[in-house]
Amino acid sequence: MDRLEKSMWIAVAVVAIIAIGGYFIFQSVTQDEHAETPEENTDQEEGNEGEPQEEDDEDQEVEGREPNQHQSWQHMEYPGEVAPDFSAEDLQEPPSGNWITFGGNIYNGRYSPLNKIDTSNATDLKADWVTSLGSGYEFKYSGEATPLVYDGVMFTITGANNVSALDATTGEIIWEFRPKLPDTLDTLCCGWATRGVALGDGKVYVSLLDARLVALDQKTGDVVWETQVDEWEKGYTITSAPLFYDGKVYTGIAGGEYGIRGYLAAYDAELGRQIWRTYTIPAPGEPGHDTWPQDNDAWIKGGAPVWQTPAVDPELNMIYFSTGNASPDLDGSNREGDNLYADSMLALDADTGEYQWHFQQVHHDIWDLDPANPVVLYDAEIDGEMRKGIAQAGKTGWVYMLDRTNGEPLIGIEEKEVPQNENQKTSPTQPFPIGDSFVPQEITEEDVERDLPEDFDGQIGSIFTPFWDDPVVLKPSPQGGGNWPPSAYNPDTELFYVLGNDNYFAYAHYAEDEANKFEEGKEWIGSIWQPVQDAPFGGTVTALDIKTNRIVWQKEWDTIAYSGIVTTKGNLVFVGHNDGRIIAYDATTGEDVWEFMTDAGANAPPITYEVDGKQYISIFSAGNSLAGTQHGDKIYTFSLEGEYGSLEDIPEDAVNTSPIKSDESEEVEEQQHGQGDVVQNGLKVYENNCLACHGAEGVGGHNGPNLENSPMLDDDEQLLEQIRKGSGAMPGFENTLEEDEINAVMEYLKSLGNKED
């Protein structure tokens, strides 16, 4: 080939390369400009890769928000090493020195092989350091986060979504990140809560309540990238901690009370671009769609949110999680069928999101008995054979134990006939696991005589009893059974530890209620529910044999159990209590070993870690709106070398405090004391203190009764006393609200009863 011919071919090649490159650039721009919205993408095949979202850097504008409105402050030099791109082996290791994932490792077992603290010396535990995080202490916030620890640094988040990095040996604050959330954010069914952050490849990953995913620089807290996962205005929010695995960040979407279509999505950990998205409600033509009506669009707003952090088995290359209730929660009349994959345990291919298997715990749920507890992976010898198990504690009060390779029961689960209601299109059968329930599942006449008001003459039932116009009181309630507080598995004792709730709830259907008609971005539960006034409520801490699903020991509390669990090789189980205690039990027998009273509801899961050979126990004690507990903002950390044996022993100047003065209290005070209509001021007080339990305009909450028809609205003295003193599960506000705030919220509540006048 002569020189001229060679030059010609080189020129042709260059032109071809430019043309091809230009084509792909054009395609990329076109895809970004025409990326499908969640609503438009309804025919996407399960497991198909979703469109990447354009989030090149931290200056990328997010719709509806100006860029760079987040703030980060660095208070001291970062003392540790940067986290690597953790390998599958790193993430499978039981947590000892570090605690690098939400569940301790990607099996979600919350078991640590640390044993320097054990049943013989746990009574010597004392507070080592305490840190006030300076945010999230208003009543609308709930402290539910699991801290992470890597190389001597702790990362944690408050209910206000503020993230802090702390020295894990002293509690000194290294840096703080405070996101800018929309002032009008109101699509949160259960209060402002988040359950933690993720860590990997030098970044801290944060899921925000307004459905954004943010990556922070591990050393400074500065934003590296930000991605809008979905639109909060339509009911899509995120409360779960994200999961880092194999260069991806996984997050689910919440919003089952808002008629959303749930999904799990994977994002590139380096760039924040979406890799795949798998919907939990199958579209027409996909397996499972035939469990939804074929003559309406109930599946489009069918619910099945993802409330919790998934687990992963790298050997099987599967990612596992559970899904929430079908929408609307309590009205099944327009969604005939089993409603897959709501109320289910799901396994997907971790690389592609492709469906692998499912197991549905509640067919055609009309009771909000969805599995909100994180799934736990374990290996155990059953009938002489090592099996790969997966366990999940349901709101039903059962633990479901399956083979995680295929979703088949390990212990046995029987389909049994259940009572029917034609209006509700109820399923003829429901799954009943072989084994013990960890809370009561029926109400007896003896229960009525002992626990319910003397004038009670309503209907009672047991699990899966349907309802329509006439109210029916049932157990378990929408609080569970098992709710969000994570369970734990100890391979040494071969026991599975779970927290349970036990209270009376009344259900009734009111089809003509305007509040229960679907409107995008509005709460939509489809009926009425509320706790039985003045009835007792309780909780359980239960250890079940992983091989038989039978109770080995159980502790009964006179309040709901609403925190989470960690268990250790030291034969200990640590839990938090509503009254502020962190408690240690003997993991084998359930015997009380140690406790420490903090200054707020201990409603988050404890963790344990080790630095320089010293073992620590740590818990975020900040209270919880739905539990009605005292609010605070502190991390308490304990060791055998700690100085403080009680809360009273801790000097005020020994508590680490945020160098940033929180403006939350000032903002709320300004809103509530501002000039204007007293009812409008009362609405602001209500939104910050009452909405999570009682719902918008006093209807549809998750822990409190319907306020619109409360007889107290016609009795100022009784209403004022209830607000000040509280009763039952409701706390009193006389020590947290000022007198004019109490009067303002009282006037707002009275306006609810008069709104139809």
How do the strands and helices of this protein lay out in sequence?
Layout (H helix, E strand, L loop, with lengths): L2 H31 L37 E4 L13 H5 L18 E2 L13 E7 L8 E6 L1 E3 L2 E5 L5 E5 L5 E6 L13 E5 L1 E3 L2 E5 L4 E6 L5 E6 L14 E3 L2 E5 L10 E6 L5 E6 L31 E3 L4 E5 L21 E6 L5 E6 L15 E7 L2 E9 L5 E5 L9 E5 L11 E5 L11 H7 L7 E2 L11 E3 L13 E3 L4 E9 L1 E4 L19 E4 L5 E9 L5 E7 L7 E4 L3 E5 L4 E6 L5 E6 L9 E5 L2 E8 L12 E6 L16 E2 L6 H10 L4 H12 L1 H4 L21 H10 L13 H15 L4
Parallel strand pairs: 2-35, 3-42, 4-9, 27-28
Antiparallel strand pairs: 1-8, 3-41, 5-6, 6-7, 7-8, 10-11, 11-12, 12-13, 14-15, 15-16, 16-17, 18-19, 19-20, 20-21, 22-23, 23-24, 25-26, 28-31, 29-30, 30-33, 31-32, 33-34, 35-36, 36-37, 37-38, 39-40, 40-41
Structural Rg: 26 Å
**Helix content bin:** 10-25%
Total count of strands: 42
Strand content: 25-35%
Largest sheet: 5 strands, antiparallel
CA(first)-CA(last) distance: 95 Å
Low-confidence stretches: 1-67, 668-676
Average predicted local confidence, pLDDT: 86
Secondary-structure-based class equals alpha+beta
Biased composition (Polar residues): 420-429
Region (Disordered): 32-71, 418-437, 651-677
Cofactor: pyrroloquinoline quinone
Protein name: PQQ-binding-like beta-propeller repeat protein
